[in-house]
Amino acid sequence: MDSGKFWRRRLRSLTSHVFPLLFAAAHSISAQPSTDTAEPLDAFLGGVQSLTADFKQEIWASESADAPLETATGSLALKRPNRFRWTYTDPETTVVSDGKRLRIYDVELEQVTVAPFDDSVGTSPAMLLSGDRNVRDAFDVERTYPLEGLEWVKLVPKTAGSDFTSVLIGFMGREPRRLELVDGLNQVTRIELENLVVNPELAEETFELDVPAGVDVIGDEG
Hints:
Order of helices and strands: HHEEEEEEHHEEEEEE
Mean pLDDT: 78
CATH superfamily: Lipoprotein localisation LolA/LolB/LppX
Number of helices: 4
CATH architecture: Clam
CATH class: Mainly Beta
Number of domains: 1
Radius of gyration: 16 Å
Shape: globular
Helix content: 10-25%
CATH topology: outer membrane lipoprotein receptor (LolB), chain A
Structural class: mainly beta
């Protein structure tokens, strides 16, 4: 599955109740929970308003698989509330939210898909990073533990039927460094973040998409 297909598949879920995005974590977890609180997550949510980073994304058939099905790289920019821009390098795909609409630009297909950004997107793991909702409203903190130099927080969705059964976020201080999402088919999406910049000044134009002439637009731009 290429990254464009990944986002197009996730878009179908986004419009109902969930997202990408998004993340590389350990293959197995042997550490015991260190606490029943989630200080790293709370520190991130309380202190980080914007973020830029490079990422490596892997999609695995299962947590026990020997090798990823697909690997992609790119860059991202996030800004609260509800704005983000994910750019994949190969194949070139850009996913942008301005807080009102979600746009996916597949360069190879010369196509932009537009969907409304509504409250359902706020329950998605992607919105853990850029959303304005209280994470505890949508997720329960199941456990926290140290592993491989990071403080991990495992979240499970409160809503039955979510596209993902669990979300893991590995923090270094208040910075998210690795994430792992497991879906209902036990497929795993792992993303590792590098070259993070916390609370940069990001212009609103960052979260807009200039559609080139001749590119098909599917959906309502409003």
